[in-house]
Amino acid sequence: MAASGSRRSFDGNGSVPNCDESRDVTDVGVQTDARVQGLAPRLSKVNLFTLLSLWMELFPKKEQEHRGIDATADSGLVVVQECRVLGLHCSSVQLHAGQVAVVKHGPRLKGCDLYFSRKPCSTCLKMLINAGVNRISYWPSDAEISLLSTDDADPSHQEAILDATAAERLKSNSRIHICVLLQSLGSNMLQFVDETSQNCDFLEKIAADDLDVAEVFRRERWSNLSDLVGRFFVDDEEQHRYVLNKMGLENFCVEPNFSNLRQHMKDLIKILASVAAGVPVLQRGYGFFTRDLQVLGSSALPQDVVRHCIIQARLLACRTEDPKVGVGAVIWAEGKQSQCDGTGRLYLVGCGYNAYPVGSGYAEYPQMDHRQEERQNRKYRYILHAEQNALTFRSAEIKDEDNTMMFVTKCPCDECIPLIGCAGIKQIYTTDLDSGKVKHDISYLRFNELSGVQKFIWQQRCSDSEEPAAPPMSNGCLKRRDEDTAFQCNKRLRS
Ligand SMILES: [Zn+2]
Ligand SMILES: [Zn+2]
Question: Which residues are catalytic?
Answer without folding.
Answer: 387
